[in-house]
Amino acid sequence: MVNPNDQMQKIELVVFWNKSPFQNINAGDIYQYYSSQQYRKQIEEENNNADQENNGKGRMMGKNNQTSYIMNPPPKVTLQECLRFSEQPEQLAEDNAWYCKVCKDHVQAYKSMQIYKASDILIFTLKRFKASHGFFKQKLETFVEFPVRGLDLTEFIINQNKPHENFQIEEEQKKLIYDLYAVSNHFGGMGGGHYTAYAKNHFNGQWYNFDDSQVSELEEDQVVSKSAYVLFYKRRSEQEQTQTLNTQELN
């Protein structure tokens, strides 16, 4: 007689795939993860090299003799620097060559973006996403510092110093001061994320944070953050500019 306890029990696991297991994997998130790991490793190697070269002076001793390293601050640019960069000529060559109607052929050329006339409402979309190595995509986490008040576009208008037949246009172009009134923020990465909005009440000047169904008050110094994605500006009226000048004179 065979004892059932002496027999090896077999357990089989059967898995049925209804779809590819790789369907929900975002290649951009994988690349972003490994890029951050490589960046962290690079920082650690640089700190170790600096520590060896400076005989230990590259390290900082904290409480309980714990060692901490000084890391480079995250990259930061201003909105004005982004505008100046967008005005730089871009070379069109090879696969992106320009077609010349006179030559009847694709030739190398340069193109540039310039602002001829500014509108009353400005909407800036910050380039937060890019393709890397031809396949992977990653989110750009660069902190773009933008003014909440007093954005001056005078230097970016190409016809600012040119006379016009229409005197009204010339007068309008002299007043190119803008104030921020809303921001669209994006949190997360390429595979998923969350959007919120900051908006200013025109009547009482209070900023509000709109997060799905939640609405809360927001301090003005909290509006500028690295999560900003779309910026909304409104041009100051002549009356508002006069009031601002009077306030500055009183102060």
TrEMBL record:
<dbReference type="InterPro" id="IPR050185">
    <property type="entry name" value="Ub_carboxyl-term_hydrolase"/>
</dbReference>
<dbReference type="GO" id="GO:0006508">
    <property type="term" value="P:proteolysis"/>
</dbReference>
<keyword id="KW-0645">Protease</keyword>
<feature type="domain" description="USP">
    <location>
        <begin position="1"/>
        <end position="236"/>
    </location>
</feature>
<dbReference type="InterPro" id="IPR001394">
    <property type="entry name" value="Peptidase_C19_UCH"/>
</dbReference>
<keyword id="KW-0378">Hydrolase</keyword>
<protein>
    <recommendedName>
        <fullName>ubiquitinyl hydrolase 1</fullName>
        <ecNumber>3.4.19.12</ecNumber>
    </recommendedName>
</protein>
<dbReference type="InterPro" id="IPR038765">
    <property type="entry name" value="Papain-like_cys_pep_sf"/>
</dbReference>
<dbReference type="GO" id="GO:0004843">
    <property type="term" value="F:cysteine-type deubiquitinase activity"/>
</dbReference>
<dbReference type="GO" id="GO:0016579">
    <property type="term" value="P:protein deubiquitination"/>
</dbReference>
<dbReference type="InterPro" id="IPR028889">
    <property type="entry name" value="USP"/>
</dbReference>
<comment type="similarity">
    <text>Belongs to the peptidase C19 family.</text>
</comment>
<dbReference type="Pfam" id="PF00443">
    <property type="entry name" value="UCH"/>
</dbReference>
<dbReference type="InterPro" id="IPR018200">
    <property type="entry name" value="USP_CS"/>
</dbReference>
<keyword id="KW-0833">Ubl conjugation pathway</keyword>
<keyword id="KW-0788">Thiol protease</keyword>
